[in-house]
């Protein structure tokens, strides 16, 4: 019996026993119908931004046909789009092992390395393409763009080691910055952030207007002072009657942040918040998000909490838009100050000695204690490994033990790792963010590892919900609240990101 599924292909309706492991072009048995796995399916997945299924299709195809460079290269792109840069790099490398003349493979590997901040490795691949295709203008442009970054990085390293880096604050004369008469926006009152100022500033931002640079600098200098006094592990106590709202990644989605305040109330002494990192990058309203969050930190230093994410770092900001956005809206110098402030963001927060919150997750090695976290000297760009790196970068995994990270940084940790960590530190569970989830949150490791993500329809394309968590002092039981994306002005995510990054993801 033959069933016609596509105009050009026919197949038998009996499913073979290994039906779930067939390559592209062969029979694939779904619950009701036999089905040809075609490149059309995968193209549909890409078109619908369903990268998870695209990855699934290519993985199935590769299981039966492991010598196909194109499949590896295409899966590499799907991994790039889902931020699995470690896997993306591995696949691009594999594609080139199979076919060293496969130009696309070099581009994919270069993009993966760029995403991982390995600019020299990326440059080598662009070099190869330029050598093989000397007349390719696009290749030449990419090579030059990447070369610029490598040189800039070398320059930054040279001056960094020359002298102890001076703070931008010392070279600012904020007092004498004048606010022009034409400026009709919000101003701090006697140099202080007030609730009135915060409300005016959010309305001002909503209309896509720019806060005066003097006010932005005032906020930055003051918040640096406040953050630098905090320990790396912040410890708070919620009384029986108190609750706190924990939000995950916001990623420059200012209008969704306003929506959280709409739904859950403005921050106040009685409505405390904890924002769990990744405030900036990707979304093109990162400046508005971060100035709003810093403003509330100044207004309510004891009940408005911020933790550092892996995107509050120079490497990420250079690639994913925040540096470009600050330069476009203000100056390079102001970005430098942002960078200094980010280095003072605490890395973890413990609630009632029972719940530990951090952006990424647990550690590459057992035995890390809360005391180790207290001792982290955090005023720096995160190192490539160790507890500070893990707190910002790691992800949970369903299977026991640890694995190499899909991101290419830090590790993945299993339920047994979580169990041991909680037991040693007498904790109930951890709350982390860092990964987009369809429902806005996810409960794993038998309820001991919770993910919360607060950027709905992430990058205008993931279709996910956002969520925030209520924790009450009385029982510390997480209560989840979901929300969907609200419209924003027509400025696309990644509008300020590095052009190489934008093109590499195409
Ligand atoms: Mn993150």
Automatic annotation (TrEMBL):
SUPFAM superfamilies, per the entry: Metallo-dependent phosphatases, TPR-like
Catalytic activity, reaction form: O-phospho-L-threonyl-[protein] + H2O = L-threonyl-[protein] + phosphate; O-phospho-L-seryl-[protein] + H2O = L-seryl-[protein] + phosphate
One Pfam family named in its UniProt record: Metallophos
Record bears the keyword Repeat: yes
TPR repeat start-end pairs: 35-68, 103-136
Any one GO cellular component localisation term in the record: nucleus
Required cofactor(s): Mn(2+); Mg(2+)
GO molecular function, one term: protein serine/threonine phosphatase activity
Serine/threonine specific protein phosphatases domain: residues covered: 307-312
Keyword line: Acetylation, Cell membrane, Cytoplasm, Hydrolase, Magnesium, Manganese, Membrane, Metal-binding, Nucleus, Protein phosphatase, Repeat, TPR repeat
Protein family membership: Belongs to the PPP phosphatase family. PP-5 (PP-T) subfamily.
PANTHER family assigned: SERINE/THREONINE-PROTEIN PHOSPHATASE 5-RELATED, SERINE_THREONINE-PROTEIN PHOSPHATASE 5
Protein name per its UniProtKB record: Serine/threonine-protein phosphatase
Organism: Myripristis murdjan (pinecone soldierfish)
């Amino acid at each position: 019996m033959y069933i016609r599924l596509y105009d050009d292909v026919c197949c038998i309706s009996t499913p073979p026993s290994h039906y779930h492991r067939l390559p592209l072009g062969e029979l694939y048995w779904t619950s009701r119908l036999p089905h040809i796995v075609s490149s059309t399916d995968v193209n549909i997945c890409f078109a619908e931004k369903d990268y998870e299924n695209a990855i699934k299709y290519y993985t199935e195809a590769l299981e039966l046909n492991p010598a196909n460079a194109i499949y590896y290269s295409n899966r590499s792109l799907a991994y790039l789009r889902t931020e699995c840069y470690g896997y993306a790099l591995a696949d691009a490398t594999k594609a080139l092992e199979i076919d060293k003349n496969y130009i696309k493979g070099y581009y994919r590997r270069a993009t993966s390395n760029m995403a991982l901040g390995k600019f020299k490795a990326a440059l080598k691949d662009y070099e190869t393409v330029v050598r093989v295709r000397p007349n390719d203008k696009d290749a030449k442009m990419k090579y030059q763009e990447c070369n610029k970054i490598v040189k800039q990085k070398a320059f930054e390293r040279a001056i960094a080691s020359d002298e102890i880096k001076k703070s931008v604050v010392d070279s600012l004369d904020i007092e004498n910055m004048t606010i022009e008469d034409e400026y009709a926006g919000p101003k701090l009152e006697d140099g202080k952030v007030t609730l009135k100022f915060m409300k005016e500033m959010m309305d001002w931002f909503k209309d896509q207007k720019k806060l005066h640079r003097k006010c932005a600098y005032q906020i930055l200098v003051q918040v640096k002072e406040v953050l630098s006094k905090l320990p790396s592990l912040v410890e708070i106590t919620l009384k029986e009657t108190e609750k706190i709202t924990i939000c995950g990644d916001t990623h420059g989605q200012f209008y969704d942040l306003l929506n959280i305040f709409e739904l859950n109330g403005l921050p106040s002494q009685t409505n405390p918040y904890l924002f769990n990192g990744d405030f900036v990058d990707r979304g093109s309203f990162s400046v508005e998000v971060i100035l709003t969050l810093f403003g509330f930190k100044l207004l309510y230093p004891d009940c408005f909490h911020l933790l550092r994410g892996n995107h509050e770092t120079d490497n990420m900001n250079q690639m994913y838009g925040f540096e470009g956005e600050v330069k476009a809206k203000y100056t390079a110098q102001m970005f430098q100050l942002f960078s200094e402030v980010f280095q003072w963001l605490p890395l973890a927060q413990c609630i009632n000695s029972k719940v530990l919150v951090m952006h990424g997750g647990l550690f590459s090695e057992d035995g890390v204690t809360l005391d180790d976290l207290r001792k982290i000297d955090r005023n720096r760009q995160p190192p490539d490994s160790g507890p500070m790196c893990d707190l910002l970068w790691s992800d949970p995994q369903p299977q026991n033990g640890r694995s190499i990270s899909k991101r290419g940084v830090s590790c993945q940790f299993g339920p047994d790792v979580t169990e041991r960590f909680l037991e040693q530190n007498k904790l109930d569970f951890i709350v982390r963010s860092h990964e987009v989830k369809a429902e806005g949150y996810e409960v794993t490791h038998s309820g001991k590892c919770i993910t919360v993500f607060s950027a709905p329809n992430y990058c205008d394309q993931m279709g996910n919900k956002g969520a925030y968590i209520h924790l009450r002092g009385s029982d510390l039981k997480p209560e989840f609240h979901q929300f969907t994306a609200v419209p924003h002005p027509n400025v696309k995510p990644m509008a300020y990101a590095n052009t190489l990054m934008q093109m590499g993801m195409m």
